[in-house]
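We treat protein structure as text, and this decision shapes the records that our systems exchange. Because each token names a local backbone shape, the row as a whole describes the fold. For reference, a complete record is included directly beneath this paragraph.
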Amino acid sequence: QVQLVESGGGLVQAGGSLRLSCAASGRTLSSYHMGWFRQAPGKEREFVAAISRSAGSTNDADSEKVRFTISRDNAKNTVYLQMNSLKPEDTAVYYCAASPLGATDYRYWGQGTQVTVSS
């Protein structure tokens, strides 16, 4: 079983950038398809981006496609989410998740990291 810990969140002004990290322990991250999700107050959790085991493909939600970039460094057992041109509506808790069977089986989750974008 893999354990996930997110970091890199914080308070940023609109238009700024943040890079979130998701560090894995317990199992090698290369065994998992990885995703980032977010949940804003009063809203359901939503998908942000995903990346395959070999980083050969990515799948970004359309609304974030031009602003958010997911990447992974299997040697460091870490997945990243680079977020640019942040907007107040990006304020949320961001979670990374691991799936052993592809994009539909996210069974391991981190505790989340808060991102707050001020206007």
Q: What stands out?
A: The two ends are 40 Å apart (CA to CA). The mean pLDDT is 92. Residues 48 and 61 are 5 Å apart (CA to CA). The first strand starts at residue 3 and ends at 7.
